Amino acid sequence: MNKPQSKNLDRNLDPTEARDLLLRGTRALGLTLAPEQIDQFLAYLALLLKWNRKMNLTALRTPREIIIHHFLDSLLLLPYLPETGRLLDIGSGAGFPGLPLKIARPGLTIDLVEATAKKVSFLKEAIRLLGLSGVEVWPLFLGKSPMPLDPSNPWEVFLCRGVNLEVVLKAVEPYWESRSRLLLIKGKNWEEEISELDPLLKKLEIIVDQTVTITPPLSEREWVLVILRKTGRPG
User: Fold this and answer.
1) Architecture of domain 9-230
2) Where are the alpha helices (DSSP H) in 149-204?
3) What is the residue extent of each domain of the chain?
4) Which residues lie below 8 Å from residue 63, measured CB to CB, with a gap of 6+?
5) Exposure winner among 32, 38, 74, 173, fewest CB in 10 A?
6) Mind spelling out the 3-state secondary structure of 31-63?
7) How far apart, in whole angstroms, are the C-alpha atoms of residue 176 and residue 136?
8) pLDDT tens digit string along 128-148?
9) 84-105 pLDDT, tens per residue?
């Protein structure tokens, strides 16, 4: 793995402050990252800040916001993921939560689905800069283009943040295997959205398997992890 170089850091970013904040947050999660992984996060942060000046990759603009609400929020999913296996990050945008999860848990294979061409370009550049392997970017519109899944290597987890749930359910249902789970990152009003889709959920034999209220470190912004599974298909 090629170590990202510090020269890639944005000139307006204090690398020491960013590193300390990232270390404090990951330690609060009980997560120990190798120095190389910390360097990858800092290089990712710098690239995101640089590209964000030219295009709207994320509404969060400061290093502190990105570390707390993108990096650390993504890492909060780790306890609900396998050590190895294949994940599909739906509507990845600037790479959340897929790329932080890949950095922290290199054994995962992750596919990033993103429809916007400029964001696809960013994701590919981030993967190249960070020296990541076992991660692919699929430039397609969910539900309109087939996903080129290898049947011998199915997805174990679907990840979704900020994408229309009805579109997601219809798109991933054909690929839903016995062990598959759909992890939704939702606000506190998630029950209203789920209840509106009750007929579709019943038709697809999908139920809410688990809900977890997540309290991120260094932040008071709680969110809810909603985990869906197929009925009659135990993991």
Assistant:
1) 3-Layer(aba) Sandwich (3.40)
2) 165-172, 190-196, 198-204
3) 9-230
4) 13, 14, 17, 18, 21, 45, 49
5) 32
6) CCCCHHHHHHHHHHHHHHHHHHCCCCCCCCCCH
7) 19
8) 999 999 999 999 988 777 777
9) 999 999 999 999 999 999 999 9
